[in-house]
Amino acid sequence: MKKIGFLSFGHWSPSPQSGTRSAADALLQSIDLAVAAEEVGADGAYFRVHHFARQLASPFPLLAAAGAKTSRIELGTAVIDMRYENPLYMAEDAGAADLIAGGRLQLGISRGSPEQVIDGWRYFGLVPQEGQSDADMARGNAEVFFELLKGKGFAQPNPSPMFPNPPGLLRLEPFSEGLRDRIWWGAATDATAIWAAKLGMNLQSSTLKFDETGEPLHVQQAKQIRAYREAWKEAGHTREPRVSVSRSIFALVNDMDRAYFGRGGESTDHFGYIEPEKRAVFGRTYAAEPDVLIEQLRGDEAIAEADTLLLTVPNQLGVDYNAHVIESIVKHVAPGLGWR
C-alpha cells in the first residue's frame, strides 16, 4: 500500500489560456481540488509555498479552509520556506489549522528554493545572524518551530493577567496534539536528510535534488532515503518515519490526455543549475498508457523506497481535468503496482 496525493504550485496568470487567472481562482480552485481528490480516492492534497510570485503563498488559511470542506484526505505543504517564517506565529497558525482539519495536517518545511526577489526574507524582517547563511537561519527557525510543537510551557505568566492562567509556564495556544509527528523536512541533499532524521522529522524529496553523484534522480533519491532511514534508526526514535517523493506522472487514457501529454514525457532526467555552483538533477516526466506507466514506474527506486507519492499537477488546466489526472493514477496505475 502507498499513499497517493497531489502537489500543486498554485500558479495563476491573467492569460486567456489559463484556467486560473487570479489569486482568488488559485485559492478557491485549490480547495475544490482537495475536495475532488478526496472523492476520487486520493490520500493527500499538498501545496507549494512561494513568495513574491503569482502562486500560492501563505498556506494556513488555505489548509484551514480545505480542512473544513473535507473529512479524510491529508492536507499538507511541500514546502514552506523557513527563511520567511516567524516560528512562534507559525506554531499558532499551524495549531489552529490542524484543529480545524481534525488532525490531518502534514506540514513540509525546508530551506526553500530560489525565490522571485533577492533575499526576500529580509522584507519579512528576518536576517541571518553574524556568520550564518540563509540556510542556517532556515534550519534554526525549523528547530525552534519543531521544539514549540512539543507543547511545553516556556513563557513567564503575568502575575495580574486579564484572564486566569493554568499553573506554571505558558505555551502557545491553540496547541494540537500529535502535529509534531506530522512535520516533514524537504531535503535537497543527503546531509540535510540525515539532519532531519536525527531531529525526528519525516522526509520529503522533490522532483529535483542537488546532484551529489551524477546518477539519475531516482537512484540518488533512493540512496538519500536509505541514509535517512539508517540515521532515524540510529537516533532511536520510537515511531516509524514517513517518506514522500514527488513525480510528474500522467496516464494517457483519453484524447485530452494525449493532446496535452501525448508526446510521451521525458525519458531521461536533466542536469542544470538552480543556484550558482549548485548543480541539480531534475526528474523526468512520465506520460504513457497505463500499462506502460506501470512498467516504467516499477524501475523507479525512490518511489519503491517511499510510502507516499505526490503527483505534481498542472493546476492551470482546471479542477475537473486535474481531478481526472489524479483519478487515472489511482484507478488505472496504482492497482497494477500493488499500491491499492
Automatic annotation (TrEMBL):
<dbReference type="InterPro" id="IPR050766">
    <property type="entry name" value="Bact_Lucif_Oxidored"/>
</dbReference>
<feature type="domain" description="Luciferase-like">
    <location>
        <begin position="9"/>
        <end position="254"/>
    </location>
</feature>
<protein>
    <submittedName>
        <fullName>LLM class flavin-dependent oxidoreductase</fullName>
    </submittedName>
</protein>
<dbReference type="GO" id="GO:0005829">
    <property type="term" value="C:cytosol"/>
</dbReference>
<dbReference type="Pfam" id="PF00296">
    <property type="entry name" value="Bac_luciferase"/>
</dbReference>
<dbReference type="InterPro" id="IPR011251">
    <property type="entry name" value="Luciferase-like_dom"/>
</dbReference>
<dbReference type="GO" id="GO:0016705">
    <property type="term" value="F:oxidoreductase activity, acting on paired donors, with incorporation or reduction of molecular oxygen"/>
</dbReference>
<dbReference type="InterPro" id="IPR036661">
    <property type="entry name" value="Luciferase-like_sf"/>
</dbReference>
